[in-house]
Amino acid sequence: VADLLDQLRGLVGAAHVLTGADAAPFLTDWRKRFTGKAHAVVRPASAQQVADVVKLCAHTSTPIVPQGGNTGLVGGATPDASGNAIVLSLARMNKIRGIDAANNTLIAEAGCVLQTVQEAAAAQGRLFPLSLAAEGSATIGGNLSTNAGGTQVLRYGNARELCLGLEVVTPRGELWDGLTGLRKNNTGYDLRDLFIGAEGTLGIITAACVKLFPLPRAQVTALAALNNVEDAVTLLGLAQAHCGPTLTGFELFSEACLKLVEKHFSDHRSPFGARHPQYVLLELSDHESEAHAQQLLESTMQTALERGLAQDAVIAQSQAQSRALWELREHISEAQALEGKNIKHDISVPISRIAAFVQETDALLQQHFAGMRMVTFGHLGDGNLHYNVSPPEYGSRNIDAAFEVKMAEKAHEYCADTSETLFLSQQSAIYQCVHDQVRKHAGSISAEHGIGQLKREELLRYKSEVELRLMRVIKLALDPLNIMNPGKVL
Ligand SMILES: Cc1cc2nc3c(=O)[nH]c(=O)nc-3n(C[C@H](O)[C@H](O)[C@H](O)COP(=O)(O)OP(=O)(O)OC[C@H]3O[C@@H](n4cnc5c(N)ncnc54)[C@H](O)[C@@H]3O)c2cc1C
Question: Which of 380, 373, 384, 348 is nearest to 252 (CA)?
Fold first, then answer.
């Protein structure tokens, strides 16, 4: 090991091979669900250094766990407990290599923070539309490796749709320059698409060429209060018909989500006098004018109110008001994390089946896991829900009596934090209940967060034998030594 560390120091510089306390922040995931060990955290500064490190690891059969901003939600960037791996952090590779405004493309190194890419594009009067609540820390390499979604997929697509070319270090340590800015290129297998969404299991993305779009003149946001999810789906159809491609965001969150945000972030409050079961955040991006966007949104909301789809609605009159509405939506994940451990499902079903999925699955969970709190929110416009489950509020009148008795019965089995342990012990049963429903409704068990180590066993349950075999064949062909993020996805 000492020899390996010395060689790594020789390749990237002693200051960039972190061990001990310096390495600790890289060994636990954002949700604090996974903690692993590693020989070291290695921080190369260039694609060539990444290639040199990978060659050394291939030579010594040392597993590599690539890491960007470490905001992933499925434990993909966390090493296992063996301590045999290195974490390869791309954080120092954070340069924008260039912008081709006429071609509407930008080349960024993998460790560029998403917000930096957005700002660099905006400085040239262009839009890079990938947008998610973790954009201040998540990196473009991580975004592509997870094929991130976010809040603009409805109009611009996932990270995959926004990428034209990649630079990748293969598991043998070869540097592949596929940084093309072409929109048409049918010259055989699309290698780029293999690495996108591979969660670091097939190679290391060192840079990407992404698509840019014209910056809209105005963005206008509204929040509508609704009675149920079915009305939200009908409102989506209405908004799409009224606004066409101007509609760039359509986010759903429940009253339970809003209450959690209000509880943990006292600055953020509902703009409505009354409480409602569901809320929808709509965003229009207009290429004509602010007045045009306001008018379009007002007439859409007016129709929704007249038809009884919306019970109330507010339209932001300034950027600050718009930000305040978005913050209600963007603080949900953090509020739920502050509330304690929770069980996340990142699912998608066809939009036409979302209302039935939520209604049936809520009822099933209440039947089998009484008292659980559903914290459901997500990108309704893409059919993607974060169908999350928090434990009952212990001690409150909401708690189910049977659950409390069960907790008391099991108390002797746990030395600490009984309620949380009992809750998490039901994770796989809850997963199965929700994911069986997803399958019933022709959906996916991971819409945008990926598989990582969290959903690896679930993948085996829901993918066909043929798909799994093809995935294993690809993995073996590219990474025969199994050094590239082993134990993730497959
Ligand atoms: C508050 C919050 C909100 C979020 N909202 C969304 C959302 O709306 N939509 C969404 O899709 N996700 C969301 N996420 C999840 C997360 O932000 C995304 O998955 C993001 O794309 C991860 O980027 P990262 O740089 O942090 O990657 P990391 O967490 O560091 O890594 C993620 C995976 O990619 C691999 N990887 C990282 N960099 C590379 C590379 N250069 N080459 C090869 N493999 C690599 C890692 O090994 C790991 O498997 C959210 C997370 C948080 C905390």
Answer: 380
φ, ψ of residue 460 in degrees (nearest 5): -60, -35
Strand bridging mode 40-42 / 86-89? parallel
Task: For residue 158, give the ligand 1 atom closest to its CA.
Answer: 11
Q: Which of 252, 437, 219, 237 is nearest to 319 (CA)?
A: 219
> What's the full length of the chain, in residues?
490
Q: Which residues contact 441 (CB under 8 A, 6 or more apart)?
A: 349, 350, 353, 356, 357
Alpha-carbon dihedral angle through residues 412, 413, 419, 424, given to the nearest 10 degrees: -170
Banded model confidence at residue 463, pLDDT cuts 50, 70, 90:
very high
Estimate to the nearest angstrom the gap between the alpha carbon of 176 and the chain centroid. 27
Distance 69 CA to ligand 1 centre (A): 7
Ligand 1 centroid to Cα of residue 415, in Å, is 34
What pTM was computed for the model?
0.92
Minimal CA–CA distance to 338: which of 223, 246, 244, 261? 261
Other Cβ atoms less than 10 A from the Cβ of 393: the count is: 13
Closest CA to 168 of 201, 199, 192, 143: 192
Work out which ligand 1 atom sits closest to the CA atom of 110.
Answer: 41
The radius of gyration of the chain's CA atoms, rounded to the nearest angstrom, is 23
Give the span between the Cα atoms of 315 and 330, in whole angstroms.
18
Q: Are strands 64-67 and 86-89 parallel, antiparallel or unpaired?
A: parallel
Distance from Cα 28 to the centre of ligand 1, integer Å: 14
Torsion sign across C-alpha atoms 457, 461, 467, 468: positive
Each residue's pLDDT tens digit, 213-263: 999 999 999 999 999 999 999 999 999 999 999 999 999 999 999 999 999
Q: How far is CA 271 from CA 67, 223, 225, 257, 279, in A?
A: 39, 9, 10, 14, 11
The Cα–Cα gap between 89 and 35 comes to: 16
Whether residue 422 contacts residue 407, with contact meaning beta carbons closer than 8 Å, is answered with yes
CA 238–ligand 1 middle distance (angstroms): 33
Quick check: 154 and 382 in contact, CB under 8 A?
A: yes
Q: Which of 53, 132, 154, 478 to mutate to test the pocket of ligand 1 (most atoms within 8 A of CB)?
A: 132
Instruction: Dump pLDDT digits (tens) for 335-366.
Output: 998 998 899 999 999 999 999 999 999 999 99
Query: What kind and span of H or E run contains 67?
Result: strand 64-67
| CA-closest residue to ligand 1 atom 45 | 200
Q: How far is the CA of 442 from the centre of ligand 1 (A)?
A: 25
